[in-house]
Structure formats: C-alpha cells, structure tokens
Amino acid sequence: MAGAALRLQSLFEQLLGAPLPVRIRAWDGSEAGPPGAPTLVVRHRRALRRLLFKPGELGLARAWVAGDLDVEGDLFAALDVMAGLVWERGEDARGLAEALRDPEFRAAVRGLVRLAGPPLPPAPPPEEVRRPRGHLHTKRTDRRAISHHYDVGNDFYELVLGPSMVYSCAYWQTPESAGGTLEDAQRDKLELVSRKLGLSPGQRLLDVGCGWGSMAIHAAREHGVSVVGVTLSQEQAAYARKRVADEGLTDRVEIRVQDYRDVADGPYDAISSIGMAEHVGAARYLEYAGDLFRLLKPGGRLLNHQIARRPERDESAYSVDEFIDAYVFPDGELAPVGTTVTQLERAGFEVRDVESIREHYALTLRRWVANLEAGWDAATRLVSPGRARVWRLYMAASALAFEHNRIGVNQVLAVRTPDSGDSGLPLRARVWSAPGRG
C-alpha cells in the first residue's frame, strides 16, 4: 500500500495523543515523520497485529524480537524519545478500556486493524518463555529460570561482557574515567566488594550466585581467602572451574552447582551476593536473608549488590515488567532498596552501609551494548538473531532506565553483629568529598 508510513504516523498520533517523535519507514518503502529523527522501521504488517493483540510493551517487544520492527540510527535516542509514549504511560486493562470510550481512539484502532491485514494473532517469537504462573521460586522453577538466562553459551557472554566475565555493574572511579576500560572498572568493583567485606588471608568466603567465577578468583588471588562459589547454571560452573584451574587456585576455590538454600557448611567469615538477589523473589526474600545470616560467623559481613526499582504509591498494584519476565529474567523481581534493608534487618543483620551506584550501571550497560553491536554477526551465530535482539533491546533500555532514575542499584553492607555489639567496622568506613571533586 503506497504511503503506509504517513498513514501509520497519523494513526499512532491519534492513539498516543501526541506527535510521534520518530520517523517511520514502512514495509512499502514509504517514509514519514520528522527529518533527522531516529527511524522506526516497520518491516512487516505483522508488527501491527502484534501490537493490536498485545497492546503496550509486550507487543512492541514481540515485534522487535521477531524482526518485524527495527530502529535505524541511535537505538538509545530512539528508546529515549519513545519511553514517554510507551513505557511511562502505565498502560493497563483499565486504561485501555477508558481509552476505547474515545471515538477518535476507536477510529484509530479500526484504521490499524485495516492496515494490519487479516486479524490473526502471530505466534510469539521462540525466545519467549511460556509457562504456567504460580509456584514461583521453588528450587525447580529457579533452576529453570536461571538456565533460560545463563545457559545460552559462554562464548556469547564472552562477546558481550568482555574478558572480565562479570555480569553485574562495574565501578567507574570518576565520571572522567568513563573512557577507561570495562575490565579495569570490573576489577575495581570486585576490589570494592572485597574491601567492604574486609577480606584477609585465611578467611572463608561464600560467593552466592558466583557466575563465571570472577569474584571467587579475585578474592582468592588478591586477598588469600578460601572461597565456595555456588550457581545454578551448569555452563557457568564448568567455565568457572576451568578458570580456577588455569589460575592455579583449585586448592582455595570450590565451584558448586548448588542452590543457596542447600548450603550447609557454614560458618563463613563473609558472603558476597552480587547481582543474584534479583532472582530470589519477594515471597522468598526473608528466607534468603535468614539463610545467609545463619551461614555467617558472629561478626561476619554480607555484601548484597542488588538492582532496585522505585517504590510505587500502591505497592499492591506493582506488576512485573512483561518484556523482562517473558524474554530476559523469568520470575525475576525487583524491590525498593528500603524493602531490601528492612528484610535484611528482620533476618537479624545490622545494616551498616548502603551505597547507590546507579550511574555506574548505565555506563556498564552502554559498554555491553557496544560490545554486542561490534560483534553482531558472531552473536547471531552463537545464539540466534531473536535472542541477540532481546539482549540489545534489554541492555539499551536498561541503560536509559538507570540514567533516568527509573531503577537503581545498591551495595548494602550488613553485619551479623555479635552480642557484644562490636561490628568490627571502622568509625569512618567511607570518605566523602564535595560535589565535582571525585
């Protein structure tokens, strides 16, 4: 159909009630929209059917993952200008029902239906997780969710994460150091965790959700501790064990495929949990905190590094992000940092320090996106075009979410303080400087 792009622009602006901030290129080659803006490429009418049958974020994500939608130009800029029209509008069934009472909105929907063609709902892309709801965060469902996200091939993670093989927020020393290497920033993060935990030779460290072994290796090699690292991913464990052997640390580092709930060989002097607690779930979080508390010696420290969401006015109405749940982290849940601190304290911990490193994660994600884009052809061979598109969208959107303070990440240092009350921490654990001075 000639002029499909102009028709789409008009219909979308009717639906959104605002000018479309991106340019559109339709399947017929036509273009419409502001010159110089990022271009939304609608490769197939099927993209419209996905949006009609699943309005909002999940429909857009399905069209993106399937390759029915694409962005030409700066992906970050495109997502940034579209966020206010899609992700921040809070679309739900009640809002859609209210919108459908508007005659102009209904007319725009009918126009999209005609433009989309036969009204058959397309099958979701194969990367989408399809499973019954309920009974979340059992050992079986957690193992399956972890496998979906992490057992996609270590070569793919090497391409995205780089040589450090650390899949959590790096630590950039100052804003000016954003031009430094990702590997240096990840090493600095591991060292920051080690120093907060007060690691010293002869201690035992439990690394919960040890990933590919980077924290375990750093702690053993640089601080002389003995480490047990646990993960639910078979591929991560195999990779980590080889790295440990290559470093000559098999006498000090043990990597297990084990649920944290099954660890029974405490007490430990310290526990690191870096980017793992997002998988625990709200219903299990107090149990998680209690398990780690019992595994520590009196005076032992926990460093809990965890992504946090902003609190809702009505927490009972909070829902899990549909795209993330379906394509990225099945059963993952984010909590406000205040909730995390409260649950740790309920389990018996004394929380001694909370450090927000939100801006650091945005910098880290932009480096991961750059790695993926630079190795795009290899990435699509290692996984699939759909899975690679999932990762590109998820990491770019997440970087923007951190930059705009929609989500954060915090390091919470907690102590199993003994009855004597001596936490073992210095009076001034951190040194602050004036704004703009480092």
From TrEMBL:
Positions of the UniProt region annotated as Disordered: 116-141
Protein origin, superkingdom: Bacteria
InterPro entries recorded: CFA/CMAS, CMAS, MeTfrase_dom, SAM-dependent_MTases_sf
Basic residues bias: start-end ranges: 132-141
Keywords assigned: Lipid metabolism, Methyltransferase, S-adenosyl-L-methionine, Transferase
Annotated ranges, domain Polyketide synthase-like methyltransferase: 156-414
Pfam family, one: CMAS
CDD domains reported for this sequence: AdoMet_MTases (cd02440)
UniProt xrefs under Gene3D superfamilies: Vaccinia Virus protein VP39
Presence of keyword Lipid metabolism: yes
Family: Belongs to the CFA/CMAS family.
Protein name: Cyclopropane-fatty-acyl-phospholipid synthase
